[in-house]
Write a structure and sequence with these properties.
By secondary structure, the chain is mostly helical. Helix content is 81%, strand content 0%.
Amino acid sequence: MGIAEAGAYVGIGLLLGGSLTGTAETAWLSLASTVIFYLLGLLFVAAVFWLYELATPYHLRRNLEEGSVPAGIELAGVFVAACVAVQVGVAGDFESWGSDLVWFFVTAFIAVLLLGIIWGASLLLELAFWRVTKDQRTLTPTVTVATLRSGMMILAGVVTATVLNLT
């Protein structure tokens, strides 16, 4: 559980750092946009967690509650990856509620899409190169497999943030 919490704290720090960047016309507008986009970012991360939980063939939360170190490592990677990816959507100067909210939801959609694609690619790598057994894919993974998955998810978050920063 501590590993997952550490990943959540790192991710939340990245998200908060992103939401604190930029300027707005007034101090109140700056504060309001910071709080709103930070909370939207947290909702996005929670949604990514639930989607990831649905996509895994095993019960990630139950494994975590039972003290599974691999589940903690994997979940920490998911938290960091989601926060890195959505940080782009919460960062920057405030222009208007309409355009900034549209930008946030566009970045969130692209982030989920790219994170999913790269997660799927990592599963193919597991089959082709990492020699992961069927039990390790469908039951609780080993620490090594969870670390590889976590690393792939964080890489996915960085790639997603890079792609979104280019747009």
